[in-house]
Design brief:
The complex is a heterodimer. By secondary structure, chain A is α+β, with helices and mostly antiparallel strands. Chain A has helices spanning about 1-15, 20-35, 135, 255-260; strands at about 40-50, 60-70, 75-85, 90-95, 105-110, 115-120, 145-155, 155-165, 175-180, 185-195, 200-205, 210, 215-220, 220-225, 230-235, 240. Chain B has a 4-stranded antiparallel beta sheet. Chain B has a 3-stranded antiparallel beta sheet with strand order 8-10-9. A two-stranded antiparallel sheet of chain B has the order 3-4. Classes of the chains: A alpha+beta, B alpha+beta. Chain A: It holds the Pfam family LolA_like.
Chain lengths: ~260, ~775
């Protein structure tokens, strides 16, 4: 029954987008994707990051990620680093905002202090990887301008390809091109990142998807390839724990200190 | 032996008759060959990358490529901005620089842009860490804020002497580019973009003047130097050649035909390069000029004899046959030795010179073939007008006779004086110093040289030495022990007189440590705890913007960091000495994992000519052996073949001695000349000795008379060809590219010295070492068997 409903919804949706401009159509895809992911409340996941340079040399790090879903503002997230040993217990707390700069704090266990990062820079490499912080933070609809490009068959599914233009002038990107899987509840399949001079910089591919709670698609693996340097980074996610019962109090500066212990 | 001689003459006659009979077919086939070979020229492309000067197995290149794989490969463009009023920190200048920095991100293949405006200024307020552009939205800043920016910038060790001078009158925007290396047009694309950008910038800001440097601009300069040579030297060379041929032969159709032969030969050499996919470089780009210079001799020899015969009253056909009879062998042998000389360049350490050698060798082979096919064919077809006149004894023969008389009368003094002078210059030759400062490859006509000199005088150094310092374990760069040693090395380098600036992770570590302790000056020091250092680094890295990360200074697993020492304009010998001193300091003061070698493009060039000289020893040795064997056969005498080594090699020693007095420093281009000049100067010896031996063997002359005979018959011709060769190389010596001009200058000197030695030392040697009383047999006798 659910699937039938979904198909009907999609058909209705498809018929409405006929009359839209590419910008409106892009925005509506983004909204639909945002809506499709609503209601997971909070998530908890362990992840492994593998950095690999052009010569195949690897470096691995582990971390834990907690996310709290918010609808009126951007999500809150807390990342705790488990390795390398030097930074074990270091944790970041981020409040994403829909229209203003995100707030970010870092707990440094070596000096047992929380430091606030007052920087608009969200595009530098995350832990030396090919992911920028902005690639990993939550995809708030308001952070981009949209333009629907085309529908495309991708990996045997029907995809909407939408261009996203970052609103933040500090973004490292001129634009991103995102593949939304229309057959799988708008889950992301691929993102291409174009640098400021509009050359293809990186491609992020999602794989090993699993559906949770009968609704939410979560990828088991992110692969980010930098085309300009030949370096790549893989993110492996253990089982996602959705609706994990986390509360606002788990995303405070105190919880940041606690998480680090 | 006489049979052989006669046979070669007969071969020449038969050849000439055949060519004349089938002149049209020969000409058409020649033209078709020219077109087929010349078609390759359409595939020629210029490779300006400085890396072309290094062979794949060059250890410095390999070390540098390994180094670049650890960090990021960075070629760069340095845009230096000079406000005419000297005020970098005026609102207007600063705002313009901010805009230029933003625009620079649009440069094709750019991965990073560093300037004073986007410098990541780090400071703290309480527990808040600020990492932000030193100067953004300059247009909205008030004078106080701009003063503050100025104060911070001028006291920032990571900026001063690198992107900003101490007085604050000149600053720079450094664009790092990563070329994918898929097409050789990538570098020129960057250059074109940057040039257009700065042109617009200067137009919009008349107070600001820009200067361009960096590795990408170096690559462009290679191209521009070559283009400059092609557009100025080649037309000049053509003019010189037309003039020379006409003056020597006095025939318009002959001059025209010879010119065609030369064009055919160039097309063959350059087409060969195109067909084989050899990329043009400044040295190999000089091949047409060298082919022209050398190919002209073949044509002149054949035409002169033709015209002499016709002036004596011979019909054109007979004169042509006579010319080929006389010249076929000498032209063949001199071409052969020249080809051997140029092929010996294949042992060179520098690939473009191997290409130059091979292209010229092919051109010379073509010149020989066309000179004995297309040239006589055309001369048989075209009308040749000539006035029959009595053979006049050239005035200059008197001059050569007097030289002969002098040598004969004072053989011992001439021999001893010559040898003393040769040994004197030979000693001086070793006083030359190898020097390959790549900026000095370009003369002041090339904008790269002007701009780079400006930068050296006003902002920072162009040369640098890189060190990748290992910590021995992943994450080890956060080890306080490592950081302390890194700082010690940095401090030591800063005290060295050669060093202008040191850029290393140590400065970042100190600044972040300070900011983490409320910007307290006493914490402007290395962190003392490894976890602390690692966590500060994590925090700092998270705060950096796109493209300004530390990946260019720290490797992936944080086990090594990079240190760059910018050094003054010193000779490459001093650079090598400096690098060795630094390497030695590391060995005596740091743990084994930090021991490393200083590397960089600068160092690659610094070691290049030393390696080149070593590699040329084999090539030159081989050339000497092969050329001597050719001479033994050509002169049909082991004794004279071996004796010829003396006048063939000594000019090179003397040439380098003279160079020591004139210039004193040798670059890669100069060091290449051994083999190639050998192949050229040997012609003098061949001509002189063959005429001498002819007189002795056929006419039964005494040694003294045979020497006189040699002087009067070939003295003038040798002088003329020397003038032709020297003027050709003198034109190439005007090249704006130092390797080419050095090579050409040295070759000119050696050719002149070779003639002098052939006129003085060679006859003296013949006189002193030939037993006068005994009638010499044609068979060879060892040189040692003397009176």
């Amino acid at each position: 029954m659910k699937i039938v409903k979904l198909v009907i919804a999609l058909l209705v949706f498809a018929s409405t987008i006929q009359a839209q401009s590419p910008e409106e159509k892009g925005l509506s895809v983004a909204r639909a994707a945002d809506k499709a992911d609503q209601g997971f409340e909070s998530s908890l996941v362990n992840l492994k990051m593998v950095l690999r340079n052009k010569q195949g040399q690897e470096s691995t790090r582990f971390m834990e990620n907690k996310t709290l879903e918010l609808t009126e503002d951007g999500d809150k997230s807390l990342i705790v680093f488990k390795s390398p040993k030097d930074v074990e217990g270091t944790a970041t707390l981020t409040f994403t905002h829909k229209t203003t700069s995100d707030d970010q704090w870092l707990y440094l266990p070596a000096i047992k202090r929380v430091k606030r990062i007052s920087s608009d820079n969200k595009s530098g490499p995350f832990m030396g990887s090919e992911f920028a912080y902005e690639d990993l933070s939550s995809n708030e609809v308001e952070k981009y301008g949209y333009k629907f490009l085309k529908n495309e068959q991708f990996n045997g599914s029907n995809n909407a390809v939408v261009e996203q233009d970052p609103v933040d002038p500090k973004s490292g990107y001129k634009r991103r091109v995102v593949w939304y899987n229309l057959d799988k509840n708008y889950r992301l399949e691929k993102i291409e990142f174009y640098d400021r001079k509009n050359s293809l910089l990186k491609t992020l591919t999602y794989s090993d998807y699993k559906q949770y709670e009968g609704k939410y698609w979560r990828a088991g693996k992110f692969l980010m390839v930098n085309h300009q340097t030949g370096k790549e980074t893989e993110l492996f996610f253990e089982d996602w724990d959705l609706k994990s019962g986390l509360a606002d109090t788990d995303f405070s500066q105190n919880s940041l200190r606690r998480a680090g212990r | 032996m006489e049979k052989l001689k006669r046979m070669s003459g007969q071969f020449g006659i038969a050849w000439a008759k055949w060519v004349i009979k089938r002149r049209w077919i020969v000409l058409i086939l020649s033209i078709l060959t020219f077109l087929a070979m010349g078609f390759g020229m359409s595939k020629l492309a210029f490779d300006g990358d400085y890396r072309v000067f290094f062979s794949k197995d060059n250890p410095q290149l390999q070390a540098y490529e390994t180094f670049q794989r650890k960090y990021t490969q960075d070629d760069n463009v340095l845009i230096v901005v000079e406000p005419k009023d000297g005020k970098t920190f005026s609102k207007e200048s600063l705002a313009a620089i901010e805009q230029l920095t933003t625009d620079s991100w649009q440069t094709p293949f750019s991965s990073r842009v560093d300037a004073i405006t986007n410098f990541q200024h780090t400071y703290a307020v309480g527990d808040e860490l600020y990492v932000e552009d030193l100067a953004d939205n300059v247009g909205e800043r008030n004078p106080d804020e701009i003063q503050k920016i100025k104060k911070i910038a001028l006291s920032e060790p990571l900026l001063v002497n690198r992107l900003l001078n101490e007085k604050g009158t000149v600053s720079a925007v450094n664009i790092t580019v990563k070329l994918p290396g898929e097409a050789i047009t990538e570098g020129p694309e960057v250059t074109a973009y940057v040039r257009e950008m700065v042109a617009k910038f200067e137009e919009a800001h008349p107070n600001l003047k820009t200067h361009l440097s960096g590795m990408i601009m170096l690559n462009s300069a290679f191209f521009e130097a070559s283009a400059q040579d092609s557009s100025t030297l080649i037309p000049l060379m053509f003019l010189a050649i037309v003039l020379t041929i006409f003056l020597a032969t006095r025939t318009i159709s002959g001059t025209f035909s010879a010119l065609l032969i030369i064009i055919f030969s160039i097309a063959a050499g350059m087409g060969f390069a195109g067909h084989l996919g050899i990329k043009l470089t400044p040295p190999s780009g000089a091949a047409p000029i060298i082919i022209m210079t050398l190919a002209v001799a073949d044509s002149i020899h054949i035409l002169i004899t033709l015209m002499q015969g016709m002036r004596r009253g011979l019909p054109k056909r007979e004169a042509l046959i006579e010319s080929l009879r006389v010249n076929f062998m000498p032209v063949f042998i001199t071409s052969l030795t020249t080809v051997i000389g140029f092929l010996s360049m294949n042992t060179s350490e520098v690939p473009p010179f191997r290409d130059l050698g091979n292209i010229t060798a092919v051109g010379m082979i073509a010149a020989f073939l066309f000179s004995v096919t297309a040239l006589p064919a055309m001369m048989a077809i075209l009308p040749v007008r000539v006035k029959v006149k009595e053979a006049t004894v050239a005035r200059s023969n008197k001059f050569f006779e007097s030289i002969a008389d002098l040598v004969i009368a004072r053989r011992m003094p001439v021999l001893i004086t010559s040898l003393v002078i040769i040994f004197g210059f030979g000693y001086l030759a070793f006083q030359n110093q190898l020097n390959d400062e790549f900026i000095k490859y370009f003369d002041s006509k090339i904008s790269f040289r002007q701009d780079t000199d400006f930068i050296s005088d006003n902002l920072t150094g162009i040369y640098n030495v890189e060190f990748s310092l290992g910590s021995g374990e992943p994450g080890g760069i956060n080890n306080p022990g490592y950081l302390q040693k890194l700082q010690d090395f940095e401090r030591w380098l800063e005290q060295q007189s050669e060093v202008i600036h040191v850029n290393s992770y140590a400065e970042v570590a100190r600044q972040v440590n300070q900011s983490m302790h409320g910007d307290s000056l006493q914490y402007y020091a290395m962190p003392t705890n490894r976890e602390e250092a690692a966590q500060y680094l994590l925090l700092y890295e998270m705060s950096l913007p796109f493209g300004l990360d530390l990946n260019n200074q720290i490797n992936v697993d944080k086990s090594e960091s990079r240190l760059t020492a910018t050094i003054k304009n010193i000779s490459t010998l001093e650079m090598v000495a400096f690098a060795k001193r630094a390497e030695e300091w590391l060995r005596s003061n740091t743990p084994a994992n930090m021991h490393t070698l200083g590397i960089s493009p600068t160092m690659m060039f610094a070691y290049l000519s030393g390696r080149q000289v070593l590699s040329m020893v084999t090539g030159t040795g081989l050339a000497i052996v092969l050329i001597t064997i050719v001479l033994i056969f050509a002169l049909r005498s082991l004794k004279y073949g071996l004796m010829s080594i003396v006048p063939n090699i000594t000019p090179i020693a003397v040439g380098f001695g003279i160079w020591a007095l004139l210039e004193g420093s040798i670059n890669v281009g100069v060091s290449i000349v051994f083999g190639m000049t050998l192949g050229i100067i040997v012609d003098d010896t061949i001509h002189f000795l063959s005429k001498y031996l002819l007189a002795r063997r056929e006419h039964g002359y005494s040694v003294a008379d045979a020497i006189k005979y040699a002087f009067t018959t070939v003295g003038r011709a040798l002088l003329v060809t020397t003038i032709v060769l020297v003027s050709g190389f003198a034109i190439l010596a005007q090249s704006s590219f130092g390797m080419n001009s050095g090579m050409a200058k040295m070759t000119s000197i050696i050719i002149v010295v070779a003639l002098i030695i052939d006129f003085l030392l060679l006859p003296a040697l013949l006189l002193v070492f030939t037993p006068e009383d005994k009638e010499e047999k044609l068979q060879a006798q060892p040189v040692a068997s003397t009176e």
